[in-house]
Amino acid sequence: QKEVEQDPGPLSVPEGAIVSLNCTYSNSAFQYFMWYRQYSRKGPELLMYTYSSGNKEDGRFTAQVDKSSKYISLFIRDSQPSDSATYLCAMKTSGKSTFGDGTTLTVKP
Amino acid sequence: GAVVSQHPSWVICKSGTSVKIECRSLDFQATTMFWYRQFPKQSLMLMATSNEGSKATYEQGVEKDKFLINHASLTLSTLTVTSAHPEDSSFYICSARETGGGEKLFFGSGTQLSVL
Questions:
Q1: C-alpha torsion angle, residues A75, A79, A81, A82 (rounded to 10)
Q2: Mean pLDDT for each 10-residue chunk of chain A (109 residues)?
């Protein structure tokens, strides 16, 4: 079993929709939780970073962490075609990061 | 946010030659850098952790003599793919963690290597 499982997708939504991206994990030692956005043939870009349970909001993006359920989510409000990309969740203790396999999102105009 | 520059963005080489990829942190110092490999529609596979001034730590199954890593300064790490073969063709990405800057990683833009 992988330490980090990410909903595989792909996901296709109309412009303006609310998008929910999800990951579960098994290692209770994970302390830091990140979401990255990766466009095709580009390096990942850090979107959200958090280390506590609860919600963290940044513009149209909200990261949610539930440590008791070992579950994290990324919500995108008012999705735009420019949000079309692969989204990677990542988690770490104090060492290396463990990445999910990514969810590819397409937002159709 | 912090910027990591990776060069070249793509390279085509003949089988048996060596290819060097550079990863630079432009506006911060990075004691630790990471090198990943990514296959199409798959996630990042950590190859090695590069520490400034010391030997890199390689993940299980990664040949250290094949993938040479040098981290000679706080802003530059290089990955050299030696005697490249077609099976080495892949997308290689580096990331850097700012010294004293917490746990955030900043990624380079990646290098697409094609070995003919």
A1: -60
A2: 88 97 94 93 91 93 95 97 96 84 95
Work out the number of other CB atoms within 10 angstroms of the CB of residue B14. 8
Mutation choice for A interface testing from B105, B111, B113, B114 by most A CBs within 10 A: B105
- Partners of B84 in the β-ladder: none
Task: Pick the closest to residue B111 from B38, B42, B62 (CA basis).
Answer: B38
CA atoms lying within 13 Å on the CB side of residue A46:
21
Nearest to A34 by CA among A74, A73, A80, A90: A90
Cα separation, A51 vs B44, in Å, equals: 21
Residue A82, classed as helix, strand or coil, is helix
The residues pairing with B80 across neighbouring beta strands, listed in sequence order, are: B20, B68
Tens-place pLDDT, residues B18-30: 999 999 999 888 8
Instruction: Tell me if residue B88 falls in helix, strand or coil.
Output: helix
Residue A28 DSSP SS3: coil
Query: Closest partner residue to A43 among B6, B41, B43, by Cβ?
Result: B6
